[in-house]
Amino acid sequence: MSGFVSGFPSLSRRQFLRAGGGCAGIALAGLWQERRCELNAAEAANRGIPLPHRVPRVKRVIWLFMHGGPSHVDLFDPKPELSRLAGQPLPESFGMVMTRRKVAENPLLPPVRPLRPRGESGVEVSDFLPAIARHADDLCVIRSMHGDSVNHPQSVYQMNTGSILMGHPSVGSWVAYGLGTENQDLPAFVVLPDPGGGLKGGPPAWGSGYLPASYQGVPMRPGPKPILHLAPPDGIGVDRQRRTLDFLGELNRRHLCDRDGDSELAARLQSYELAFRMQSAAPALVDLREETAETQRLYGLDRPETEEFGRRCLLARRMVESGVRFVQLYSGDTNGWDAHSDVVKNHSQLCAATDQPVAGLLTDLKRRGLWDDTLVIWGGEFGRMPMSEQGKGRDHNPWGYSVWLAGGGVRGGMAYGATDEVGLRAQEKPVHIRNFHATLLHLLGLDPEALSYFHNGLDERLIGPTDDVEIVQEILA
After folding, report:
1. What is the pTM of this model?
2. Which CATH superfamily is domain 58-222+289-475 in?
3. What is the DSSP string of 296-343?
């Protein structure tokens, strides 16, 4: 790592080990692991990053990722002009390059459900989402998001990692790298995938990229085995496992010292220790039997259409309450919200499955005292076109779409920015994904420009080159 932060040169792990006496530094790391605050401070100094850079507005994040691309013009972005022009071709004035045949076959499709002003703020929310609509005064809706790819995998990567290319660290990994964990028995970054699987882009969306492997997202699920292959084999007790782990740890530490602090091996050592501690912590975390019947109903666990997603939303609350810093929860299997053929059918099913659980999560965070320092994010990798596809569907739209935030650090009851008159492109106060990420890091107390990692001769950042990156100040509380 190179560069200067707060007037001090940053050091690579290898340089730090040399300065600290090599193997002696490794031995000290074992002691630091038992003292969280000192460990985070030591790692921060190692990386040259003061943690946090400023007083954080929030301590933790729950990201509700609607995989496939929910339709902003049918959910959060009212467009009267789209209704007025329904059935007509997209006017040439919007600059969309389409063949005459394509224009004729894909006329403008009006919002398929009404969007109405809600709450005291009057923020418009669709009839698709009646439970979330009751929280309109809590929502900060960014209506002018935009990205750089029309394809699912690249857009999933960009929304999650800042780049359309595979192999970059996810937002959760950057946050874990920058802030560490609040609970040494649990990972800093947990992922709750959709049980249908099939995320377009796959696990690299929550991978650590070129950061050490210890910062990647850890997938968890409900039930007695929240993490596959975590439990020891039958007949292997805790004491025996502890002795085996200590023996392997000693061999690996010798191996590490001889190789001048190889970061991948150091990450493997940390993962062994974390896995051992999680054997007792993780099953208790995902056991929902201690939750009251009222709480389970709040999340929709009493109804078949909401039970699955509601269970994961409740798990997300339990995780952040237990010290997990970043939880990402996916809605939508292989196709998810990708409503190419029928928006009404697709969104009716997915909104019915997610609306009550999301609203229940917001309510629960408030009443458990987690609201002021937890940030909730709702959105997909892009939105949908104002034109129709196959008569009743919509195609991908990365040029203008909506994402909403709620909870700590942001202003509730507001809409920021705007797309054009039909919802095709971000027009007023556009927010590129890099600026969205910069704002998220800022809320967590991290300087988006200072949070970097030296890789292949470059200081890499989540936000990429910093020349045109801005924090969206107007949405901050």
Report:
1. 0.84
2. Alkaline Phosphatase, subunit A (3.40.720.10)
3. HHHTTTTSHHHHHHHHHHHHHHHHHHTT--EEEEEE-SSSTT--SSBH
